[in-house]
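Most newcomers find our protein records easier to grasp once they have seen one. A learned vocabulary of local backbone shapes supplies the integers on the structure line. An example says more than a description, so a record of this kind follows:
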Amino acid sequence: MASEKIYLLVIVVGTAWVYYWLGYQTYLRAFNGSLASVGFAVLANFFLLLLGWSIVSTVITDPGKPPVFWGFFMDEPQNRRKRYCLTCHLFKPERCRHCSTCKRCVMGMDHHCPWLATCVGYYNRRFFILTLTYATLAVWTVLLFNAPKVYRIVQHWRGLSSFSQVFQHKAYLGIVFTYCVIIFLAFVITKFYIYHLRLVINNNTTLEDLQCQRAKEPIETRFDIGLKRNIASVMGSNYLGWVLPITSLPMPSDGVVWIMNESSAATSGTQVDYVKVAQ
């Protein structure tokens, strides 16, 4: 966990680097009040603020820990097969998994994120999705607004009489280099974001999807209860929470009982399954 904090530091330093070269150097240093300058200042800072807020909300929100005595009572209302964690010594509710990095069970676990040094689970997954949303919007805002600037720099370089003159303007080198890095990151982040959007739309988790891929089985559909309800099960029932990382907004359930579609609910069993968690 301590080593993972370095990844979080990389995010902070990298964001500051991009903001300096593709924000301060290109627009804010010589702010002229033009439409492009105002648009960039408003959009870039707005998305950056929401990105930072989403990251903090993801990190400080506990992903969810199963109730200690869940599953030990005969009158347990959830009529499904129960799994037992031999590491945490407790029954695991549906979609709960043990994280060997955090050394605990996490309700509705999606995955462990090393970049944020935390597990993404039932209570903080919506903030993780918003982190990807605003990261995607931020990088594409930077790319689009800086494209004319970079184009003019490249045109200026093409008019130079010798290649060595390129190194006379170090600011230009920093801007173009950072822009090239952002092009790569934009496509990586966007692809990652689309993947997680698909999971939310289908009400799947990363671990469930990877498990199906390894077993070469069809995509998990047990929890697919319709588009709107699928999104609400991850992002919450309050629409404000779909766009803002407000930690005080409640989730629609306790993360223990999950609604299944009719075909899957009809085949659910009552067998208790003692499973040793792979470390």
Q: What stands out?
A: The CA atoms of residues 37 and 52 lie 22 Å apart. The helical segments are 5-28, 35-60, 125-158, 170-202, 206-215, 227-235, 262-265. The first strand starts at residue 82 and ends at 85.
